[in-house]
C-alpha cells in the first residue's frame, strides 16, 4: 500500500543539514504521531540536480520533499515538478507567515499565485576573514612596514590580493585566499557574476537577454584568472574545492580570506571544536578598482519543496510547516545552517554565539539575483566552461567571452527557451 512506502527526502549534502534533518524528523514524529519510515539521502549539487530534475525524481514520486535552491526553480516550474503550496498555506499557514520572513526570501519561489517552496537555508555571499590575524599588532606593524598603509579587511580586489599574499604562509599551512573553483556549474559561475557586478556590469543586455561579453566581464574574468593562478596567494586545492570544501578548509585554519556563503562563517562559531572559533568576521565583497562598481552580494537560497509526484503530500506539507517554525529555524542555525526567519536573525542567543549574525540584513540589501530562466542550468554551464577555459588555458579572455556569448545567443533563441 502507498502508506507503507517510505517518506523520502533529498538533502543537500552538508553535515549540519544532514544532522538537522534527522533530528527534525524525529521531533516531527514525536509531535505528530507520524509512523512512516523515512529515508534521507544526502547529495552534492550535481547529483541532487540530476536526481530531482534531469531524472525527473520530483515528478515520478521518487522523492516526497527536497532541498532545492532558487537557481533551479524556473526549470522545476516549467516542468511542473513541484507541488503548489498556495492552497495549503491558505488553509493552514506556517506561524507568522509571511511577515516572519524578509521579502527577499519569499519572492523567488512565487510564480503568479503559486508558491513552490518555503525558506530552508539562507546566507548571501560575503568576504569571510580571520579577524585575529587582522587585529594582531605584530601583523599590523609588519604589513604597514611592507605596504605603507594600515592592515584592514580589503574593500577592493587589488587590496584582497595584496593582503592574501601577505598572509600566504604555506610552511605554516596558512594560505592567503581559498576559492571554490570546482567546475560544478555553480561556484565559478557565482564568482564570475560577483566580479562582473562589482565592476559595474550587468548580466543582461537590458532586453532580458543574458550578456557576458562586456568590458566589466573582461576585466573581472581577467582578474579572476590571475588570482586563482597566483601561487603566492591562493590555497593550492582551490581548483578542487566546491563551496563546502572551501568552507571546511577555512574552518580548519588554512586560509586568511575566503569569499563564500555567510553560513560557512557562522558554522565556525557553532562548532565548539572549530580551530578558528571566535576568530572570524565577515564584511562586504570587494569592489573593482577605480571603476563605477560597488560591493555586491548574491542571494541564492535553499527551500523545502514538495515533489509533484509525492505519494505523501499531506504529510510532506505538515512536515515542512513544522520545519519552518521559529523554534526549528533557530535549531537549524545552532546546527550550523542559516535560519531564514527574522526572529532567528535577531535572536539574542544566536547573536551572542555568532556576533556578526546581525549583518545578514545588510548583506541582503546588496544582494543580486540570477536570471530567472528555465534553461539557466544550460546557460550556467556555458559560463562555467568559459571560466574554466580562462583558468586552464592562455586563450585571450575576450575571445573566450565572445565564443561563450555566441553559445548563449543560440540557447536564448532556441524555440523552447523561457
Explain briefly what this protein structure is.
The chain is 44% helix and 13% strand. With 418 residues, the chain is of the alpha/beta class.
- Assembly classification: single chain
Helix content: 40-55%
Rg (C-alpha, Å): 22 Å
Shape: globular
Q: Which key phrases capture this entry?
A:
418 residues; 5-stranded mixed beta sheet; 4-stranded mixed beta sheet; 13% strand; alpha/beta
Task: Write the SSE topology.
Elements: E1 7-12, H1 15-32, E2 38-43, H2 45-54, H3 57-60, E3 65-69, H4 73-79, H5 86-91, E4 110-111, E5 114-115, E6 118-121, E7 125-130, H6 131-135, H7 137-147, H8 157-167, E8 175-178, H9 187-197, H10 215-228, H11 243-251, E9 255-261, H12 263-270, E10 280-283, E11 297-298, E12 302-306, H13 313-323, H14 326-335, H15 342-345, H16 348-353, H17 360-365, E13 367-368, H18 376-392, H19 397-412
Parallel strand pairs: 1-2, 1-3, 8-9, 11-13
Antiparallel strand pairs: 3-12, 4-5, 6-12, 7-9, 7-10
Describe this structure in words.
With 418 residues, this protein is of the alpha/beta class. Helix 9 packs across helix 10 (215-228) and helix 18 runs antiparallel to helix 19. The protein is globular. The chain starts with 6 loop residues before the first strand and ends in a 6-residue tail after the last helix. It is 44% helix and 13% strand. The model has no long low-confidence stretch (mean pLDDT 93).
Amino acid at each position: 500500500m502507498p502508506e507503507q512506502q517510505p517518506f523520502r527526502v533529498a538533502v543537500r549534502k552538508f553535515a549540519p543539514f544532514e544532522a538537522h534533518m534527522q533530528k527534525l524528523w524525529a521531533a516531527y514524529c514525536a509531535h505528530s504521531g507520524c509512523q512512516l519510515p523515512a529515508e534521507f539521502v544526502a547529495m552534492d549539487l550535481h547529483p541532487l540536480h540530476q536526481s530531482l530534475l534531469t531524472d525527473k525524481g520530483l515528478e515520478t514520486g521518487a522523492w516526497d520533499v527536497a532541498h532545492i535552491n532558487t537557481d533551479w526553480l524556473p526549470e522545476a516550474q516549467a516542468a511542473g515538478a513541484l507541488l503548489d503550496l498556495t492552497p495549503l498555506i491558505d488553509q493552514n499557514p506556517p506561524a507568522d507567515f509571511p511577515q516572519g520572513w524578509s521579502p527577499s526570501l519569499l519572492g523567488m519561489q512565487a510564480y503568479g499565485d503559486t508558491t513552490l517552496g518555503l525558506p530552508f537555508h539562507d546566507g548571501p555571499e560575503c568576504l569571510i576573514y580571520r579577524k585575529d590575524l587582522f587585529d594582531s599588532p605584530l601583523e599590523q606593524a609588519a604589513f604597514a612596514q611592507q605596504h605603507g598603509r594600515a592592515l584592514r579587511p580589503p574593500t577592493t580586489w587589488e587590496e584582497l590580493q595584496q593582503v592574501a599574499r601577505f598572509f600566504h604562509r604555506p610552511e605554516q599551512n596558512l594560505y592567503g585566499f581559498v576559492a571554490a573553483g570546482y567546475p560544478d556549474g555553480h561556484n565559478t559561475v557565482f564568482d564570475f557574476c560577483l566580479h562582473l557586478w562589482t565592476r559595474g556590469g550587468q548580466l543582461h543586455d537590458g532586453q532580458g537577454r543574458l550578456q557576458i561579453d562586456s568590458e566589466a566581464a573582461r576585466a573581472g574574468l581577467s582578474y579572476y584568472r590571475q588570482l586563482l593562478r597566483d601561487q603566492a596567494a591562493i590555497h593550492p586545492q582551490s581548483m578542487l574545492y566546491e563551496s563546502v570544501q572551501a568552507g571546511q578548509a577555512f574552518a580548519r585554519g588554512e586560509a586568511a580570506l575566503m569569499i563564500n556563503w555567510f553560513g560557512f562563517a557562522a558554522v565556525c562559531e557553532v562548532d565548539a571544536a572549530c580551530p578558528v572559533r571566535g576568530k572570524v568576521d565577515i564584511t562586504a565583497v570587494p569592489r573593482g578598482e577605480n571603476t563605477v562598481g560597488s560591493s555586491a552580494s548574491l542571494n541564492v537560497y535553499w527551500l523545502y519543496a514538495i515533489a509533484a509526484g509525492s505519494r505523501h503530500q499531506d504529510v510532506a506539507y505538515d512536515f515542512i510547516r513544522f520545519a519552518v517554525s521559529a523554534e526549528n529555524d533557530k535549531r537549524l542555525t545552532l546546527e550550523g545552517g542559516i535560519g531564514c526567519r527574522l526572529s532567528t536573525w535577531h535572536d539574542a542567543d544566536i547573536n551572542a554565539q555568532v556576533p556578526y549574525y546581525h549583518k545578514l540584513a545588510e548583506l541582503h540589501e546588496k544582494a543580486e539575483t540570477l536570471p530567472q530562466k528555465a534553461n539557466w542550468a544550460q546557460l550556467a554551464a556555458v559560463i562555467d566552461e568559459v571560466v574554466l577555459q580562462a583558468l586552464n588555458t592562455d586563450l585571450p579572455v575576450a575571445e573566450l567571452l565572445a565564443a561563450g556569448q555566441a553559445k548563449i545567443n543560440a540557447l536564448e533563441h532556441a524555440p523552447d527557451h523561457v
